[in-house]
Amino acid sequence: MATFSSPNVNEGSALWTKQTYYSTCDIYADAFPQPSNWLRSDPIEVHSGLKTVLVTIKYRTLNCSSYSVKRGIYCKNYFHLYEHQSWQPTGPDPLTNTASYDKIAKTAPSDFGIKVNQTLRIEVKRKYIVLAFHDQGSCSVLFSVTVSYYVCPGLTHISSLVSLPRTVAPANNSKPVEVGCATDAFNKQGTLSLDCQSDGVWNISSLNGSCLCREGMENTVGKCEDCPEGKYNNGNGFNCTEVARGTMNAIVTMIKLVIPSAPENVQVIFVNRSALELQWQPPVVTGDQTHVFYDVDCRKLCEDEDEDMCVNNACGSEVIFIPKRDGLNVNHVIVGNLSSFVIYTMQIFAKNRVSELARRKHGTEANFGEISVRTNGSEPSVTMYLNIIYGLVGLLALCIASFTCYIVYNSHRNKPPDVEFHSLPKYPKLREIYDLRLKNDNLKTNSSNTRICSRHWEGGTKLSRIHLPSLFPWPNTSTKRRDIVRKPIEESTTSTVFKILCSGDVETNPCYVPKCMTRPRRQNHTSKLKVFYTKARSIVNKVAKVQLELANMQADIVVLTETHLDCTISSEEVIGSDYTVYRKDRAGNGARYGGGVLIATKKSIITSIREHQDLPSELLFVEVIMDGEKKLTIGTFYRPPKSDLKPLEDLRSCLSSITTTDLLITGDFNLSEFDWSTNHPTKSSEHHYLSSAIVQDHFLYQMVDEPTRENNILELVLTTNIDLINNLEVGEPFSDHNSITFIVNTRPYQQRISTKENYAFNKADWNHLKSLFSYSPWYFTIEQQDINANWEAWKDLYFAAYIKRIKYKKENYRQVSLTSIISKTAEKIVKSRVVSFWTEHQLLNPSQFGYLEGRSTVSQLLSCCNAWCLTRNSSKVSDVIILDLSKAFDSVTQERLLLKLNRYGIDGQLHLWFRNFLTNRKQRVMVRGSYSDWSPVTSGVPQGSILGLVMFHIYVNEIPGIITSTAKLFADDTKIYRQINNVEETIALQIDLTTLDLWADRWQMKFFSTKCEVMRITHNKDKKSTRYNISSTVLRNVSNYKDLGAIMTSDLKWSKHVEQIFHKANKVLGLLKRKVGGKNKDIFSNLYKTLVRPILEYACPVWSPYLIKDIEEIEKIQRRASRIALGQRRQEMAYKERCKILKWNSSVLRRDFLSLVECY
C-alpha cells in the first residue's frame, strides 16, 4: 500500500483531507482560479527485473447531476491519475513541476455512490515510481491504492516432482523458465523448462518432461522419501512396489557388491601451464550394469609448511571441464583454466545407477582412480599439438606390437635380485584368459629363442627361464622340451586380452614378448549418425578447435563451409585419418582465401560422392548407404552474400538429378528476412523468390528455428523427411556463425526384424482351402461345448498401440481394441437395434455429432460457424470454450454406465448382456508380434469396438441439457459457447463451467484443465476474453485452435487453415514424387486422388477460401502434381491442358461441387 501526502495548494481550495481515507469535495467554486487539488505518494521502489506493475485504486466519485443544491461551474465527475519515474527516491512537487508527471488515466463516475476498483498497467522505466492524483472540482473519496505485480510462485509440482523457482511474471505472453528436480529426484530427459505466464500462473501443459525419485525412494506428496520396508523402487518409476520375500535381501546384497571398481590406468596425455587432458580405461567391475559414468574431482595441493594444517583444496569455480565435470559418458576429459606451476590431484570416480543408493543406504563410497600432475609447460602450437597426438598414437601401436609383456604370478619365494613381481587379476574369468594365452605360446625350457629382459642378470650372467618365477612349475634342466598344444581362442577373448593389456589393469612385467597380437575385429557402425556442421571461416587456423569439437561430440559426419583450403593442404592435416573426406575447394583460389565446402564421414560408413558435380558453385553431395541398403544423400551448399542467381540455379539443377528418397542439405544460404515457418520470404528479391521455389518444388523442410548469426537464420538444414532429423541444436559461435549439431534417425548396416508373421494372402490356394473347409469337423474347433465359456474367450481384448503425437513418450500412444470376429458380429446386431430404438424415441441429444448416421464433423463445424458468423456480423461477441476430457473412454465407470443404460430403456436380458459384455474382460498389448501378460479390465469402454462409442455417447448424453450455454459434442471432444452481451452472460458461462466440473466429479471423470482453452470471436482488436476457470485452473486465452481438423481463428478467417493443409498436402505429394514419380500417370493420378486430394478438400464447405492468395495456394498443389504425373517441367504445357489429359477438375470447381452436395 502506497503512502500519500498533500502538497500546499492555492488559498481557498479544498485540500485532500485524510481520515481513514482521502477525500475532497470542491464543487462549489464559481470564480477563478479553477480548483487544483493534488495528492502525491511517496517514492515507490520497484523490484529489479520488473517490466510492468499494476496499480489498483479503490475510489468513489459522485455524479454532478445528483446534487440537489446549486453547484459550481467547475463540477467534475472524475479526477486524473499521474505517474513520475526517476532513478532517485525523490518526487517533484506537482504544483510547481507538473510537466514532469505523465497522465495515465481518468477515473469514471461511480453510480449511486458505489465503490469502484480500477486497475491500470504501468510500464516500468526507472527504479522509483511516484503516483499523483489531480482533482479539478470533483467530490471524490480515495479508499486505497495498491501497487502489485504478478509472480509465478515457488513450489514443487507434486505429480512430476519438478521444483519451480519463484519467478517474476513477464509483461506479456509467457516466458520459458529452466526448472530443476526436487530433492533426491533426477531427470532422465535433459533440461526441463516450464512457461511462466503473464498472469503469474505456471503453464503446466508446457512442461517438457518430469523427474523420478532415486533408487530406493518414492514420491510422497511431492517429496522423495525412502521406500517402506518390504518395498523397492529401481529408479524407473514414481512409487515403490512390493518385493517378494527374500528378494529385498538380494537387492541389498546386490547394492553392496555391484558398484563399479576404480577406473583403470588414469594418465595425463597432454599438459601445459593452463590445461591438461586426462584419459582412463573403464573399470574391470561394472556391477553388471549397462551404463557406467564418471565424475571428476579436482584439488590443488596445499603448500603450507605445517603438514598437519595442510589439506588439499578443491579447485575453484573458474576451472572448466570439457565436455563436463559430472556424469561423463566418455573416458577422457580436458581440464582448463588452471594455474601455472601448481600440483593438482585429479580423482576419477566410477559410478553406475546404484552408486548413490549404496552410499545413502550403506555408506559405500564410489571407487576412484587418482593421479597428480604439475602444470609447468608452455602452450603448444597447432603443429606441436598434432605431433603430440601422432606421436602418442605411434607409441601406443609400438607398445602393442613389440613391448607388451605378460605377467608372472607372485608365488616364487626365492626370487632373484632386481626382479619385479606383479599379481594377476583376482577375477576368475580374466585369470583363465591369461592362462590360455600363456599356454598357447608353446613355452620351452632353455629355448634358444627365449628372450630375457636386460635387467634379469645376476653376476654378469643372464638368467635362464628356470630361475624366473612363472605361472607354471618349471622342471629340471634335464627334462626334454614339452609340446604344449595350442587351444583355440575366440575373437571376443582376444579382444578382451587386448583391452586388459592396454588398460593398465595390472602392470606388465617387461620380459617375454608374445609372438603375435590379434587385432580386434572391426565392427560395423550400429548407432545413429551424429552430424556436426559449422561455417569455419578458414579451417587452417582452427584445426585444434575442430579436432577438439569432434573428439567431444564423436561426430560421424562433419560438414564445413568456407574452408579456405586449396590443393597444397591435405585433408588428413585438418580432419585426421579416421574420416573419409570429400572436398570442393573454390576454383582459382591459389591464395587460399575464401569459399570451399567439405564433407567428412567416419571410415566405418560406406559413402560415395555423387557424379556430375562439375558445376562451378560451391556445393557437394555424398551418398551414404544406410540400413536395409537404402541411400541417404547428404549435401552442403554455400552462397556468398553478394553473389548473383547462379549458385541457386546450380543448386536447383543438381537437386533435379537426385532420385533418392531421403535427402539432407545443410549450409550457409545467407538468406535473411525469410519466414521459414511458411517457406515464404518477407523481402522482395529474386534470390528470395528463387529460394522459396526451390524449397517448395523439391518438397524440402527447413529445421533450424533459432538464429545462427545475430538475429538471423543464415545456416539451414533442409530435408525431405521431417522424421529424419532429431535433437537439432544450435551451438556456440564457431567463427562468426553458430555451429549446428543433430542426429539422423537411421542406422547404417542394420535392419530391424519383427517377430510378427506376415502372410502372403495373394499367393494362397483358396479353392483348395475351401475344399478342406467342407470336410472339416467344425464341432471340434470349439474347445468347450459350453457357449458361455467360449463367449468369455471371445471377449478377450488385444490392444494395438498407435502413436498420436511425438514418438518416444508412452503417454502419446493410444490403445485400440482388436476384438474377435464373433464379438464384432454380436456388437453390430445389438448396436443396430439399440440405436434405432434411441433414435425413434429421440433419446440421443441432437448436439452429439460423433459417429451417428446423418451427422459428421462437417455438419458440426457448419452448425458452429453459422452461429458464430451471425453473432460476429451483428457486431457482438462470442466466447468459445474448448474442453478436454482426460482419458475419457478409459475413465468410464462400468456400474454407472449400466445405470445410465437402464435409464435409457435398456433392461431385462439385454441389460444383462451389456453387463456381461463390459465385465470380466481380460486384455493384453501386442507390438510387432510380441505380447504382454494378461491383465483384467476394471473400467472403461473398449476403444475400437463397435459398441464402445455408442455406450460413451450415452454416458455423456446429458451434458448439453445441464447447462444454459450451447454445447456441441463429437464423441469426447466438447465445446461450449455463448453470445456475450453483458457481464451477466460471462457469469452464466462461468456457472456452466462449474456445473460441468461438478458433473465430471460426480461421474468419476475429469477435465484436463491445462488443455482447456477459451477463444473470443469478435471484430475488436482486443480479443482477450474474461478469465474463466475450471477445477481452480484459469483457462488459457488463444487466438486460434484446431477444431475437428480445421483451424478456427478469433476473426473467423481461414488463411491459417489453408497454410496448414498446404504444408501437409505438399509433404504427401513429395512422398509420392519420390516413390512413384512420373513413371505411370494413371497410378500417380489414383494415388493423388486417394492421398493428397482428401487433405485439400476435407470440410471445404466450411472453409472454402475467398481470398485470391488462399485460392492460388491450394491450386498450386494440383499444378505441381499434374507436372509430376506427366513428367513435365515448368511452362512445358498449360495447366488446363494437363488437367484435360489427367481428367482432373480444378480445385475451385471441386470445392463448389462438394459444397452443393453437402447442402442439397
TrEMBL record:
Residues 787-1048 form the Reverse transcriptase domain. SUPFAM superfamilies: DNA/RNA polymerases, DNase I-like, Fibronectin type III, Galactose-binding domain-like, Glucocorticoid receptor-like (DNA-binding domain). Residues 1-157 form the Eph LBD domain. One of its GO terms (molecular function) is DNA binding. Keywords: DNA-binding, Metal-binding, Receptor, Zinc, Zinc-finger. Residues 262-378 form the Fibronectin type-III domain. This is Ephrin type-A receptor 6. Coiled coil: none annotated. Gene3D superfamilies: Endonuclease/exonuclease/phosphatase, Galactose-binding domain-like, Immunoglobulins. Residues 395-472 form the THAP-type domain.
